[in-house]
Amino acid sequence: MAEDERQQERGQGSELGGEREHVRVAVIGSGFGGIGAAVRLRREGVTDFVVLERAGAVGGTWRDNSYPGCACDVPSHLYSFSFAPNPDWPRTFSGQEKIQEYLEQVADTFRLRSHIRLNTEVTQLRWDADKLWWEVETSDGTLTADVVVSATGPLSDPKLPDIPGLDTFEGKVFHSARWDHDYDLRGKRVAMIGTGASAIQIVPAIQREVGRLTLFQRTPPWVMPRMDRAISKAERWVHRQLPFTTHARRGILWGIRELQVQAFTKRPNELGAVEQLAKRNIARAIKDPALRAKLTPSYRIGCKRILLSNTYYPALAQPNVDVVASGLSEVRGNTVVAADGTETEVDVIIFGTGFHVTDMPIANRVVGADGGTLMESWKDGMKSLRGATAAGFPNFMTVIGPNTGLGNSSMILMIESQLNYLADYMRQLDVLGDRAALAARMSAVHAWNDQVQERMKRTVWNTGGCNSWYLDENGVNTTIWPGTTSEFRGATRRVDLAEYEVVRPPKVSAEAARPKSRKAKKVEAEA
């Protein structure tokens, strides 16, 4: 059925006669995944869709993470859509504000605003097996959708550790992804909890203005220099006048990272030379042997994400900074206590403790064909077919799903591959007819997951000797893709119908489930 006919059949997504609104596709989230999905749907001729965003603006993690010093650790020309190149990136590694502006620009350029519903949080998704659609409950009412694309992303819900006594702390407490810009840090005694990608940007950004900064470090990260610089006006002029140069720049950045993948996935010992460079980076900035020992990891570089900074180590060497080589274990009044017994009085606690990655909260809100939630289905670990579809959840697709993360390149590459899969998924549904759904076969999900986990065994993420956020509570890596982005693009280029069961509505209710057209409603009214 053509898209314009389908819109007329369903009332063009509007509420008619008191009936609930129905759309062809409901996209959840407006970060890179959600905005990308919306663009791809429009380019495929699908215009009957909505983008449901719980916040008041688009941007996803780049809207939420507005902490001081926030920037991307992937070069800007690679961390942008291939179909929406930006010739005006101001730096090779651009900051949060510029990335947020870019996503706003994409939403405007591709005329997505009319599809986006801000301040609309999805509270539950429930599959209706009779009508073959999803009931989508939101903070702004309920609608139904033939297909749901979850693009909430793994870095959307902050993870706070359960610290005894934290509720009695009399000072200020917040997570890096929920930065309190109204709180003045000048002269304050600050406890920074965690040493991940956010913390290494926050520490140097606030070190000069705070009175004292205490960094609680469970595990030191490997940190390499960040080859950041301003992109000259001349370069930007060339990129605007000769668009192929922007694509060429992106291609070179992509190619370099593709060549690095073998060391991460098949030959981790080759990373030893990189490790020596990282140790020299520490030695250049940290002259105190005791502090240098605290900051030198004992695991293979690459096991955790390699972080990039030119200012992190110099900031830690300043006289108003203390590094506690232990995690936070307790709070007593205004005193924070480390696992090694170190006590420090502070005015504010900032958590840079990451996100719910392997236990994404959205999974608790998705109720599938058997009445169970996606979280229950994933109780033994996240599993999906080609990082997109889970058994028991027809016409439900995840962007940045299980084992689609990267340890050394741009997630935009993986997102675009999944958008290819989404596009073909919609084509297959059109070929099958309006009242059809695709349900991933359990056997196909297991076969894909077994293949991924077998490849994972020899990667640095599994053999490097660290405990990273890539691993779930069972120690299984359900986050990272153990191959090149080219391989993943090939694996998601087309939907293989042999991996799916075609679901049709029960014969008795099939006709009743079909939304009536405006013409049919008019005839009934006249009768």
UniProtKB/TrEMBL annotation:
Keywords tagged on the record: FAD, Flavoprotein, Oxidoreductase
Superkingdom: Bacteria
Any Pfam family: FMO-like
Chain positions covered by the region annotation Disordered: 508-527
InterPro entries: FAD-bind_Monooxygenase_sf, FAD/NAD-bd_sf, Flavin_mOase-like
Family to which the UniProt record says this protein belongs: Belongs to the FAD-binding monooxygenase family.
Name listed for the protein in its UniProt record: NAD(P)/FAD-dependent oxidoreductase
Organism: Streptomyces durmitorensis
